[in-house]
Amino acid sequence: MPWLPESLPFSARPAGETSRTIDLGERTVAYLLRRAKRRTIGLSIDHRGLRVGAPQRASLSEVETAILNHGEWIRKKLDEWRTRSAPEVLRIVDGLRLPVLGSSLEIRLALGANRCLWNLQGVDPTLTLCLRSPADAPRVLEKALRDRARELFVERIAHYAPLLGVDLPRLSLSSARTRWGSCSLRTGIHLNWRLIHFPPPVIDYVVAHELAHLLEMNHSPRFWAIVGRLYPDHQAARAELRLLAAQCPQW
Fold first, then answer.
1. CATH T-level assignment (fold) for domain 97-245
2. Residue ranges of the chain assigned to CATH 3.30.2010.10
3. Which is nearest to 23 in space by CA: 68, 60, 54?
4. Which of 20, 21, 26, 174 yields a CA-CA distance of 20 to 30 A from 236?
5. CB 212 within 8 A of CB 204
6. Model confidence pLDDT, tens digit, residues 41-62
7. What are phi and psi of 143, to 5 degrees?
8. Strand order in the sheet with 103-111
9. CA distances in angstroms from 174 to 105, 181, 189, listed in the order given
């Protein structure tokens, strides 16, 4: 069974997951096995540890062989995550600048009833948070960005869905730390509101990617052909997303 590296946090919704362990030399490694409609065995590692995606028909022996064949890579990546410094938590202060839709947005703080005022005119856009207390800043800011993200996502889905010949799916916002989007035929499209920090072309790629899953719940060549029809420059956008993901504000 061939191995396919999974470097991006996209996938259709998992069909089922099982926690297992395997001995890699003198080290016992826990992993999460996820079986789904896919053709290959894929390994991915993040802050949660080792995750393995496998076809329904793959035997446990095939899965463990794939893990053992990449034991050195797995140990190295697990050690990198273990020693990685926790990202600095963003402090929301007057004058803070955040990336929003590919531009720098200045955050201003003022007294008020926990509402926000957008000013996107000119070359220096601002978002003023009118706060009852400074402690309310994270909640008010997140709500402002979530609302703006939802408006944009609805617009872009309405643009791409007709090109694919599908009905407009239900949209939900997610807050996942390692997944930018997912798709389910039952519950619709899920998009991470933090995409609002990225340029519009990257957001369009994510929207096109998830909409394509309505026709192909996998990452097969046929799936990527559908993505390519919707968004021809998807390879460049995918690479840019990978770079921007590491720089996304944490708060």
1. Zincin-like (3.30.2010)
2. 97-245
3. 68
4. 174
5. no
6. 999 987 778 989 999 999 999 9
7. -60, -40
8. 97-100, 103-111, 126-131, 115-119
9. 22, 8, 10
